[in-house]
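Researcher: Sequence recovery benchmark, item below. Answer with residues only.
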């Protein structure tokens, strides 16, 4: 599976990834319009970009009552068909990373579409915290385990 790999220790929290994403997709620089989101733990100075991991067996696709979550051929990105999405948020709750976000204007979910195989967020990240692996990342399992641990620790706060 194609994936954007994240090395959280390198992230400086500059938000360049969010701005490039929102500008590319929406024509405006806004974190709320970005498909990649920055999570912050300022008390311990940790920044963590979160982005769809395009799971091999995506729970978001299984739980969607309207079949709005689909895989894009060519990149294998998991995206939302806005015409079918009713904004129920089931995919957000099913996602092990809590990644799908609600678009502030359409009220439909949105996730990373891998920019047709050339993700801009990875190109603008000056800290090299993000990288794109079109054939999958051999260390992805370790990174996914880290992301799940981080996500579950956020829920318990």
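Model:
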């Amino acid at each position: 599976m194609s994936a954007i790999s994240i090395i959280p220790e390198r992230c400086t929290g500059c938000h360049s990834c969010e701005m490039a994403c929102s500008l590319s997709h929406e024509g405006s620089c806004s974190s709320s319009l970005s498909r990649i989101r920055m999570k912050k733990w300022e008390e311990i100075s940790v920044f963590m970009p979160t982005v769809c991991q395009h799971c091999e067996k995506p729970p978001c696709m299984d739980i969607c009552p309207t079949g709005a979550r689909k895989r894009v051929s060519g990149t294998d990105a998991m995206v939302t068909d806005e015409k079918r999405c009713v904004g129920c948020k089931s995919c957000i709750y099913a996602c092990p990373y809590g990644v799908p976000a609600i678009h502030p204007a359409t009220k439909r979910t949105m996730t990373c579409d891998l920019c047709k195989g050339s993700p801009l967020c990875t190109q603008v990240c000056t800290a090299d915290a993000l990288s794109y692996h079109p054939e999958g990342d051999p260390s992805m399992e370790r990174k996914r385990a880290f992301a799940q641990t981080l996500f579950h620790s956020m829920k318990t706060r």
